[in-house]
Amino acid sequence: MVPCDERKGPLPPCAPLALAVMPKQQSSEPAYENKVALSRGTLFPGLDLPFMNVVNHPDHLSTPLCELMALDFVVQELKLYLDTHTEDREAFAALQTCIRLSREGRRRYVEKYGPITVDDMRYAESFTWADAPWPWQLCANKEG
Amino acid sequence: MFVYEKKLQYPVRIKNPNPALAKFIISQYGGPDGELSASMRYLSQRFSMPYPELAGILTDIGTEELGHLEMVGTILYQLTRNMKPSDVKKAGLEPYFVDHTAGIYPQFASGTPWTAATIGVKGDVITDLTEDMGAEQKARTTYDNILRLSDDPDVNDVIRFLREREVVHYQRFGEALRLATERTNQKNIYAMNPAFDR
Q1: N or C: chain B end with fewer CB closer than 10 Å?
Q2: What is the pLDDT of residue A68?
Q3: B198 Cβ partners below 8 Å, 6+ apart?
């Protein structure tokens, strides 16, 4: 065994002393499929550590709104990953693909179900931005 | 600048109103380790963060926490919808109801109003990131406790999502702390505070 520097401890190998040391996530792969990621609350199987090993199932996430949520969730997960892995080209390419899919999905959703941001009013016939339902309201006949 | 998106991060559809659950879930709205505390902590700490990618992680996680605040508020709103005075009494919600009716007010489960006294902004890179790691664990524990107390499947589905986000954020703050220390004096990482001593 190579002896550690006097400022490094033997466990884990040669880690600095008096400092919380977190293992770095090595890669953005493997990754869950979008809807599974949303249902689990993480894109990354390695970080999926559920309480009492009870997990959510993605079955109820098949509405158009949930599909959009799943895409946006993967964008969020890759963004946070890239904040601490700025040089990861593969993850960056995956982020760009996901952003493009999200933009396209959003355009189709907005056409059918109404605005998500006020930007979506730019070609609308009337001002529907403030129409119900707001996201916290339960509404039986609204998709999602 | 913030732009509102008229959708939740994760769907919240609570079929059965249950004001008794709202009594303790409210702690993740305005409690000591709740989502309001989380967003204010990270969005405030970022101003003095000298490293751009770490200001980025504080901004991005702090913003996500605002979305979680909206989700917890949505749970509370749906659990207390269509309440009658008899439901209020049955749930033992009278002390809250008399002050707030069915409004959503940021407070601890114990009734203490939300306070910045439970968050830390120390203006020191290592200290703030270490605080953030502790904060994520405190929020995870609170969600664990909510899962121990709640038997509503619609509520627990959302709580499990929110709890897992704490695990992911903990990992990212740990990586942020690692990046921060790699940028400081390796012989003595406590020799100075890069947020203040230039």
Answers
A1: N
A2: 97
A3: none
Given a cut of 70, the residues of chain B with pLDDT beneath it are none
CA angle B184, B186, B192 (to 5 degrees): 45
pTM of the model: 0.96
d(CA A7, CA A45): 34
Nearest-neighbour CA in chain A from B113: distance (Å): 23
Which domains are delineated in chain B?
A: 19-182 (1.20.1260.10)
| pLDDT of A2 higher than 80 | no
**Which residues in chain B have their CB less than 8 angstroms from residue A24's CB?**
175, 178
pLDDT surpasses 60 at A1: no
Q: Nearest by CB to B6, which of A42, A81, A116? A: A116
Radius of gyration, CA atoms only, chain A? 21
Q: Which of B27, B38, B21 is nearest to B111 (CA)?
A: B27
DSSP states along A47-67: G---GGG----GGG--SHHHH
H or E segment to which residue A9 belongs: strand A8-9
Report the pLDDT value the prediction gives residue B184, as an integer from 0 to 100: 85
Which residue, among A114, A97, A121, has the nearest Cα to A34 in the 3D structure?
A: A97
Kindly provide the residue ranges of all beta strands, DSSP E only, lying in B111-152, ordered along the sequence. Answer: none
> Does the pLDDT at position A142 exceed 80?
no
Average pLDDT value over all residues in chain A? 92
Closest by CA to B27, choosing from B125, B188, B162, B164, is B162
CA A80 to chain centre: 8
Give the separation between CA B7 and CA B65, rounded to whole angstroms.
Answer: 14
ipTM of the complex: 0.97
CB contact under 8 A, B160 and A77: no
Say how far apart CA A35 and CA B120 lie, in whole Å.
35
